[in-house]
Design a protein that fits this description.
The protein is an alpha+beta fold. The chain has 14 helices and 19 strands. It folds into three domains: 213 residues, Up-down Bundle (Multidrug efflux transporter AcrB transmembrane fold), CATH 1.20.1640.10; 78 residues, Alpha-Beta Plaits; 109 residues, Gyrase A, domain 2 (2-Layer Sandwich). The strands form six sheets. The protein has a four-stranded antiparallel beta sheet with strand order 7-8-2-18. Strands 3-4-6-5 form a four-stranded antiparallel beta sheet. The protein has a four-stranded antiparallel beta sheet with strand order 12-9-15-16. The longest helix is centred in the C-terminal third of the chain and has 55 residues.
Length: 523
């Protein structure tokens, strides 16, 4: 154990040098670190919401809209089946959480019931007089609500990730709420616009009667929708579109901001998958010289005339956007549409001043803790204690370097983890040094005592640190937010402290031992 291979010496020195190099950007201003060449370490530790400031939002998912959307789809399917079977009906629509229809001929009631019952196995069918009511089972409603909430979580995560924000906290709260914490946000209003839009895009043909202004009379199979641009009276104009969706935004595979080559205006260029591209090509081929409405969240953002068939599966959206608006719209379309509208229940903006106070307090606690540990080790173990102190300082550089490389978010509990690691970092050295003392008391020579001390204490050190590391991993897997921040710093601290205690301290002790060959140990 007192022999150190040359490659081990090089390895220990290289790790320590890299730790200092990757942690050094944290000791200069952020603009200086960002200005360093890419081939040099330039990443600083990413600070969490409680340290850096940012936005805290509590969102509510309107799950009733999910149920209504499914019921609307059921109504469309009911209409298609009844027409196919030539069954006369009336009063078809949604009432509460039920889809209902009245069959005009009593002799067709049983036939209609059998047809509608087969539409969806997750529904119950009830007959009252000539009226058939269809509603979803409680199990089916629960599954759809949970699915919508989970889908909302993933889409919000994709939208936030597209903005380049690191380590947001996005988690479910209760049955219909989502907690969102985004550190370092400079424009909270833009964040709310990005996550608040449902971003459901559909393509519809414009109805031939759209030129009129009689909004009260709506032809069958059509509906009036507001346009994005305001009319001459300063109010949103309306356009009459066909209800049938020709192409859905679900078939989009990409959307990017761009500039129109003819007008130099910002636009959004989109691309469909093969299924959507075929639908888009068929629709534009059959409706040349007809207006084609692009609808986003119930508003017509553009209604260009189809000049020629668009067969490439791609196109562009123009609508008097600024480039920032075009970028945000492209981001929303790439991330996908939310399954239900979101409502902001609670909003808080955390200022960085609170975070700076926390950082200052954490620094003071870390420095005081380190000084006390350094003094104690020097008094208790003399020269060997000083070697442990050198390893402790190296350990701090390795922790900062590890956090910088991984870009793990440092939170206030994370600082507590670092302070805890300072105390734990010398545990392994204490075990080794006490074991060496016992071997010296038993009459062993210095070389034999050091050899026995390291070899016999190694198993205990590994067992103690591995069990703590398992606890940190479990905290990270099952925890969230601040708990994960604590787990990350604790886990990194355990790994680095084992390295410095077992490898670095032993290298220093062995180097001293081989150079001086002492008759007795100063321990």
């Amino acid at each position: 154990m007192v022999y150190f291979a040359k490659w081990k010496v090089i390895f220990v020195i290289a790790v320590c040098v890299l730790g200092v190099a990757f942690s050094s950007p944290n000791f200069v201003a952020k603009n200086i670190a960002e200005g360093l060449p890419d081939w040099l370490p330039h990443k600083q530790v990413s600070l969490g919401l409680d340290l850096q400031g940012g936005s805290h939002l509590l969102l509510e998912v309107d799950l009733s809209a999910v149920v209504k959307e499914h019921l609307d789809s059921t109504v469309d399917a009911m209409r298609a089946e009844l027409r196919k079977a030539r069954i006369r009906y009336g009063g078809l629509g949604v009432e509460g959480e039920t889809a209902k229809v009245t069959i005009r001929k009593p002799e067709q009631l049983e036939q209609a019931r059998n047809l509608l019952r087969a539409l969806d196995p997750d529904t119950n069918t009830e007959v009252t007089g000539n009226t058939i009511r269809i509603n979803y089972t409680e199990r089916a409603l629960t599954e759809r609500r949970n699915s919508a909430l989970q889908q909302s979580l993933e889409i919000i995560r994709r939208r936030i990730d597209e903005t380049g924000v690191r380590e947001p906290t996005i988690q479910r709260q209760g049955d219909d709420r989502i907690l969102l914490q985004v550190p370092g946000v400079e424009d909270p209003e833009r964040l709310k616009r990005l996550i608040g839009k449902t971003a459901k895009m559909t393509f519809h043909l414009v109805h031939p009667q759209s030129g009129g202004r009689n909004y009260a009379r709506t032809p069958p199979g059509a509906r009036w929708l507001p346009e994005q641009e305001l009319g001459p009276d300063g109010q949103p104009a309306k356009i009459l579109i066909r209800k049938r969706t020709m192409v859905s935004g679900e078939d989009l595979v990409d959307a990017q901001p761009s500039t129109d080559g003819r007008t130099n205006e910002p636009v959004v260029v989109f691309r469909f998958n093969s299924r959507g591209g075929k639908k888009f090509g068929d629709t534009t081929s059959k409706n040349v010289n007809q207006p084609f409405a692009i609808v986003l969240d119930g508003t017509v953002i553009s209604a260009p005339v189809i000049r020629e068939p668009i067969l490439g599966g791609s196109g562009q959206i123009s609508g008097n956007f600024s480039f920032r608006e075009a970028t945000d719209l492209a981001l929303l379309l790439r991330a996908g549409a939310l399954p239900a509208p979101l409502t902001i229940l609670e909003e808080r903006t955390v200022g960085p001043g609170l975070g700076q106070d926390s950082i200052s307090a954490g620094k003071i606690a870390s420095i005081v803790g380190m000084v006390l540990v350094v003094v104690f080790m020097a008094i208790a173990y003399g020269r060997f204690g000083l070697y442990a102190d050198v390893a402790l300082i190296a350990n701090m550089f390795l922790i900062l370097g590890g956090l910088s490389i991984l870009q793990a978010t440092l939170t206030l509990p994370g600082i507590a983890g670092i302070v805890l690691t300072i105390g734990m970092a010398v545990d392994a050295n204490v075990l080794v040094f006490e074991r060496i003392r016992e071997e010296v008391r038993q009459g062993r020579t210095p070389i034999s005592a050091i050899d026995a001390g390291y070899s016999r204490a190694l198993t205990t050190i590994i067992d103690a640190n591995v069990t703590t590391l398992i606890a940190a991993v479990l905290l990270y897997i099952f925890g969230s937010g601040p708990i994960r921040g604590f787990a990350v710093t604790l886990a990194i601290g355990i790994v680095t402290s084992m390295f410095t205690a077992i490898m670095l301290t032993r290298l220093l002790v062995v180097t001293w031992l081989r150079r001086t060959k002492p008759a007795q140990l100063p321990l």
